[in-house]
Amino acid sequence: MSRMADWGNDLYTGQRSINFVGKSKTWYIISAVLMAVALLGFVVKPLNLSLEFTGGSEFRVATSEAPSDYESRARNEVREVAGPGAAAKVSTLGGATVRVQTVELDGDEARDVSAGLAKSFDVENNKVSSNFIGPSWGASVSKQALRALIVFIVLTTSLMALYYRNWKMALSSMVALAHDMVITVGIYTWIGLEVSPATMIGFLTVLGYSLYDTVVVFDHVKENTRAAFANKRTTFAKAANLAVNQTLVRSINTTVIAVLPIIAVIIIGIAKLGPGTLLDLSLALFIGMTIGAFSSVFIATPLLVDLRRKDREVVALDKAAAKHEARLERQLVPASGGSPVTETPGSPSAPSVSTTGTSATTTGASPASPGDSEAVDDAQTVTGRKVHKYAQPAGPRNQPKKTPRKRRGGQ
Fold it and tell me: CA-CA distances (angstroms) from residue 305 to 7, 174, 220, 241?
């Protein structure tokens, strides 16, 4: 545990750094491949929409315990009434209730299927309930969900642009949201998970969670880049990359804490409850939150840096930072052109030297050695920076004070 804390502290202080921004092309390629596979799922295997979207008839058989062959029993009863080609989705709810979903059946067919299910599962007729959901209701649900998604995107884009005063930050966050949604829905297509109204609610919740994680990272990016623009000592990309490193541990911890209870709900739903609203919602949250943690770190900030790379103020900052780094390198290199001087903390500093003409004497009374002039040139502070010549002991500011002229008369 201490190693994890030390690792996170090193990332925050900058002693360690993961180059998220510098390897942006790698992250883009990975995301592009994932999105391409997800979009291919819409063509190869369309979404498995629930009865609420497609319309049809639903039957629920309340049993004391569902038999092991409940699927075959239910499908046989549906085929006897609706025909050999009639399809039926059969599942259990809570381990006891058998749910059967079919295409739209008329009144007589629905009654016959109910009676056949009661006989097949050896229960009374009143233990079998039937419901009919028209396709118009499913179309209304789809329309409302699409409307909610559009309103969410418009409002969040506007608020992000106003909050950060930069439309490129808003655009980066929206690209991350689109990335999360496409991959999440693509996973549903390939696995064949049922998309219900509860799943749509989960999708919208995932968008909010992903946006929250991106805002946390962007707040640190804003703070670091603001400081960089003020002191001109680091580039925009380095300041943004430091922000991602500083928030990495928090993003991991937040995602793990949020996902753990969802995993527990999924396990209970699969083992005990069966398909239903709770399981549909938890599956959407689990997939979306996991992908959202990836996008906020690997997509949003690198994309922001690439979008702002050619901005006038960013270009000026990068040039000023390059000059600052070059100046620091020159200060660390001795004037004689030798290898850089390194000092260990606590080592004695170079001797104080004073030169006059061609002769050299120390500030004390001891004679000067041949290397004293080099010691003046190589004088450094504890941090390794070269001391300016006017601040060295031999400089003009450190010369002994002369006797006033009016007192020099008798000398």
Answer: 25, 15, 14, 9
